[in-house]
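The aim of this short unit is practical: by the end, you should be able to scan a pair of folded records and say something sensible about each. We start with the first protein, listed as its amino acid sequence and then its structure tokens.
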Amino acid sequence: MDPGILCFRHCTIKSVFCKTIPEVCPLCQELIVNFNTEPFRIPYPFRNATGQPTSIVIKPSCGTFLDDYNINDLLHIGVVNSNGKLYEFDKYGLIINNVSQWTNCIAIQVVPTSWDYYWDEILNAMTQDIKWKSINYDKNTMNCFNFVREFLHKLNYNNLQFENGEDMCRKLILPKLHEAIRYITLYKNLKDNRYFISD
């Protein structure tokens, strides 16, 4: 759930992040009448997977991004079809529509809507492949990242071919993850404080 982080500037070039706008500026201690930068809401980077059709989705393997995630934690990745149905691969094999754990994930749109039909065709074909049975799962060599990487390889869309899982992480996931980590940092700083000051 979006905690509603706000940002404004009053007396300096420093940004003030908060959940409610204070009457008095935390920097200059003056009553706030005007702003150098009007208050605005920081975009919430997490989505419910079922509302993100035709996307790649990422979440922590354990817990949630806001409350539990640490940069060294493992991530889990899945694919959402054009109807919001989720496909993921783990030690239980290929799982379809176990959406309860995907309510606050990072969603990455990688193709235009004109590709929806083909996207779904590739996913449906992969569900028939015995390769994605639980017996074949290995946390290091045959995991959720292999499933998504093979899906993207078969999709054969522009710039979505990756040499390995690390290459896919660096090019596809890290840019979105960095954005999420900035938000998580703000959230954690505001958990026990009324405001957070940043340059």
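Turning to the second protein, read its sequence before its tokens, just as you did above.
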Amino acid sequence: MGSSRSTTIVIVGDDASNVIHVLDAFANVCGESFTDVPDDEVQRWIARAHSPYLVHDRDPLEHVAAAWVEFFDDLATLGTLDLEVDRAVGALERGILSMPDYYVVIDPEQLAPTWKHWWLGVLPDVAPSRVIPWTGDGRTSLDRLLRTLPTSRQWPEPGPWLRRVARAVPDRIGLGEHPAL
């Protein structure tokens, strides 16, 4: 789960770098955007951090998410999705990647339908309070968002539920018709 000393938050959305910049100005937050940075460097940054909150934009499941969306949008094969799942599980098991404590999804209502199912269906089905939708309309400030992060069970071991992701049909997630991811 990243640094044992910090709460790690991955910011997802078109405005992620601006949100990270705003949060980084808070005294108890260390924020960084990791465009084109190797995974091992991100992990070193997480391990070295001494701030209560670490905020960044490197989703350890980005390739799995993209393959899942492309599979259900008929743009990729099941083999591609299975390959990305195997890669992510291996990297998570070796400590090359780590799951964040939370995902904050910026303006989820603006997402394409299959991406909404990923961010508001697949991931919350596994750990309901670990994916936080946030709108940048000013109703909930970023500092309030940090102060009110919900407590809940942590992410389960990723291998078993990630391997079932390909069988999680977008419109059926959360309806109790499939084994819990």
